[in-house]
């Protein structure tokens, strides 16, 4: 059966994933901030609390063994997603991407590096950390420009013994770091390391990360249909050389009166940066989210194909509205716009009266958007697997109607 161009069986697929949400009443377009959670992910967290609520990496009874098994599975799923092996990399969990950046960056031995390199289109979690690391360690900071396609503009001599900290995908307009492989090679050839903010990439285009020689990449489960939890995929060689000061709990294997030994087991090196009890329900929920997205189907389309169809359609429909300015004309899951006729905050508030939820403001990218580009506040539309073309139609229709009244 077909209603308004949608196969009802396909529509039911979306509805069953997000059964708690009335898809015809609520229109959520803020997945760049955090995605909605499929029912199976919510259930997996409930299962932890109700069926095997135990500490991981600490206990020997059956509940704890279940937690350890599922936690290890999530680590393995993350390594597999970026095509890395446990021989070279490990996975540690944290609060979110911002916390992960802080955990790695500020525990680097500053004597090993001469400078930090970042870019102009970074989220505050990157831009501010690069700034504070530079000031705290009295090191040079270089802020590079990014091409329209997202590639980093840099001089090879600036990479010597540098900490390069940049995003792989922009949360402003979806620009990707298109020259990442060349950059990583150049950085490593001159004794530097590369740390990637992968928050937006993990949520959308994870396949782009499979061949990248990064030293560490940081991500957030809440941007990939999972719980609010962060993770760090890091080279073991880098982890062993951190100047650890965020310690306690499971980070050590022995403590003496005036000294201690960090975990040395190669299979458990992640514990060095997992101070204290972890969010085991969140870790297990993240594993469930990764598997859910891998199995996602909308008719014959997988998650990547379906999202590609949505973002192409979104751009096509937005271009029909003559009174808006788009920051990028490339199809993207993240689209930022503004109109000279109405303030974006007011526009967002009016859209919300129709239960259309979009982000407004500068999206934690104040330097680039407000100071460098001197743009007014923006309205950001970000797509997720909960969205449909019909929801996009409803958004665009109301967007056009509201702007036309000013």
Description of the structure:
With 406 residues, this protein is an alpha/beta fold. It has two domains: 2-30 and 297-404, Aspartate Aminotransferase, domain 1; 42-293, Aspartate Aminotransferase, domain 2. It contains 13 helices and 17 strands. It has helices spanning 8-17, 39-51, 62-81, 97-105, 124-137, 180-189, 199-203, 236-240, 280-295, 303-318, 344-352, 366-372, 389-404, and strands spanning 2-3, 6-7, 27-28, 89-94, 115-119, 140-144, 162-167, 193-197, 216-220, 230-235, 252-256, 259-262, 325-326, 334-338, 356-357, 359-361, 378-382. Strand 7, helix 6 (180-189) and strand 8 (193-197) form a beta-alpha-beta unit. Helix 3 (62-81) crosses helix 9, helix 4 (97-105) runs parallel beside helix 5 and helix 10 (303-318) packs parallel to helix 13 (389-404). The chain is globular, with a radius of gyration of 22 Å. The two termini are 41 Å apart.
Describe the SSE topology:
Blueprint (H helix, E strand, L loop, with lengths): L1 E2 L2 E2 H10 L9 E2 L10 H13 L10 H20 L7 E6 L2 H9 L9 E5 L4 H14 L2 E5 L17 E6 L12 H10 L3 E5 L1 H5 L12 E5 L9 E6 H5 L11 E5 L2 E4 L17 H16 L7 H16 L6 E2 L7 E5 L5 H9 L3 E2 L1 E3 L4 H7 L5 E5 L6 H16 L2
Parallel strand pairs: 3-15, 5-6, 5-7, 7-8, 8-9
Antiparallel strand pairs: 1-2, 4-10, 9-10, 11-12, 13-14, 14-17, 16-17
Helix pairs in contact: 2-9, 3-9, 4-5, 10-13
List keywords for this structure.
406 residues; alpha/beta; Aspartate Aminotransferase, domain 1; Aspartate Aminotransferase, domain 2; four-stranded antiparallel β-sheet
């Amino acid at each position: 059966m077909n209603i308004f161009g949608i196969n009802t069986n396909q529509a039911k697929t979306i509805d069953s994933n997000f059964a708690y949400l009335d898809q015809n009443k609520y229109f959520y377009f803020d997945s760049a901030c955090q995605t909605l959670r499929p029912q199976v992910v919510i259930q997996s967290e409930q299962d932890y609390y109700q069926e095997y609520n135990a500490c991981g990496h600490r206990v020997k009874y059956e509940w704890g063994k279940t937690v350890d098994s599922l936690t290890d599975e999530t680590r393995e799923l993350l390594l597999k997603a970026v095509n890395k092996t446990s021989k070279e990399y490990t996975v540690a969990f944290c609060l979110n991407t911002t916390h992960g950046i802080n955990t790695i960056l500020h525990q680097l031995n500053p004597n090993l590096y001469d400078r930090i390199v970042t870019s102009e289109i970074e989220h505050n979690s990157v831009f501010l950390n690069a700034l504070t690391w530079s000031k705290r360690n009295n090191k040079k900071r270089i802020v590079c420009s990014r091409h329209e396609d997202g590639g980093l503009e840099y001089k090879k001599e600036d990479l010597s013994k540098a900490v390069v900290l940049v995003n792989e995908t922009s949360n402003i307009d979806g620009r990707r770091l298109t020259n990442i492989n060349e950059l990583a090679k150049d950085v490593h050839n001159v004794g530097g390391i590369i740390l990637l903010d992968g928050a937006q990439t993990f949520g959308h285009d994870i396949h782009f990360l499979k061949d990248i020689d990064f030293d560490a990449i940081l991500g957030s489960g809440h941007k990939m249909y999972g719980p609010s939890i962060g993770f760090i995929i890091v080279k073991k060689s880098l982890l062993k050389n951190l100047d650890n000061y965020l310690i306690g709990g499971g980070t050590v294997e022995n403590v003496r009166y005036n000294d201690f030994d960090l975990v040395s087991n190669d299979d458990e090196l992640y514990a060095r940066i997992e101070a204290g009890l972890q969010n085991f329900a969140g870790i297990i929920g993240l594993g469930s989210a990764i598997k859910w997205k891998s199995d996602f189907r909308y008719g014959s389309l997988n998650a990547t194909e379906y999202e590609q169809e949505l973002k192409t359609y979104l751009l096509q429909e937005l271009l029909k509205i003559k009174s808006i300015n788009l920051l990028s004309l490339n199809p993207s899951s993240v689209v930022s716009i503004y109109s000279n006729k109405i303030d974006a905050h007011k526009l967002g508030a009016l859209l919300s009266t129709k239960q259309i939820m979009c982000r407004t403001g500068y999206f934690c990218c104040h330097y680039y958007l407000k100071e460098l580009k001197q743009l007014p506040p923006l309205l950001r539309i970000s797509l997720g697997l909960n969205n449909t073309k019909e929801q996009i139609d409803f958004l665009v229709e109301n967007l056009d109607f509201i702007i036309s009244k000013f």
